[in-house]
Write a structure and sequence with these properties.
Helices cover 40% and strands 16% of the residues. With 217 residues, the protein is an alpha/beta fold.
Length: 217
């Protein structure tokens, strides 16, 4: 806005249930989503298909929305955050709410740089400061944005003292592990994921939904 720039935190939620509607973007349904953000939902859908539907089709109905947002949603900076919310809903594993996430993502799960990284970090830091810094708060950003960091002294000092953390990631799975405290899990030679990992729980739930729908036929 003129000579003033700022970062404003937004809360993203996702719900999943049995069905074949795919991933529904509630902002699009209410005509509050721009074309770039609509592309984000397609990228997320493509990622889910390539990750969990190589050997069998998956059936899923899901909704994603920015809560209490009354303006247009545009851009792809929330791609990782939206996917994390979706995977959390599918797997049943909660995400740490003391973290903020910013980062674009391609269909392969590679995290891409975003704009306004300094303002986004400082904006979330101010929110954490108002609520009280308790050494659990932090933000996850693309590793490619590390060279763009020019943060104010207040944020730098808080990081040095261990009051606030900034994590940089190259892969979507790295952020997922930070937010859940669990391993993402790599696909084995038999095409399955190790038990006790996020990917194992996601695949298990997707299989349950598909089997439930097949029984209803």
């Amino acid at each position: 806005m003129g000579d003033y720039s700022f970062g404003k935190p937004s809360r993203i939620t996702a719900k999943t249930y049995a069905g074949r509607a795919g991933v529904v973007n509630l902002e699009r349904e209410t005509k509050m989503s721009g074309k770039i953000h609509e592309k984000v939902i397609l990228i997320i859908t493509s990622y889910l298909g390539s990750k969990y539907a190589q050997k069998k089709p998956i059936s899923l109905s899901a909704s994603i929305t920015f809560e209490q947002l009354y303006d247009m949603v545009e851009g792809d900076s929330a791609t990782c955050a939206e996917l994390y919310a979706l995977l959390s809903s599918i797997s049943g594993v909660p995400l740490k709410q003391s973290f903020a996430v910013t980062g674009s993502m391609d269909q392969n799960g590679e995290v891409q740089p975003i704009g306004g990284v300094n303002q986004k970090i400082e904006g979330f830091f101010q929110l954490c400061k108002m609520r009280g810094l308790d050494k659990t708060q932090g933000i996850i950003i693309p590793k490619r944005n590390k060279k763009n960091l020019v943060l104010n002294n207040e944020v730098v000092d808080a990081v040095k003292k261990g009051l606030f953390a900034i994590y940089t990631i190259d892969r979507m799975e790295e952020g997922l592990e930070i937010l859940t405290g669990m391993k993402a899990g790599e696909e084995g030679k038999d095409g399955t994921y190790p038990e006790g990992t996020i990917n194992f729980l996601v695949e298990k739930r997707l299989t349950e939904i598909s089997e439930a729908l097949e029984k209803k036929k």
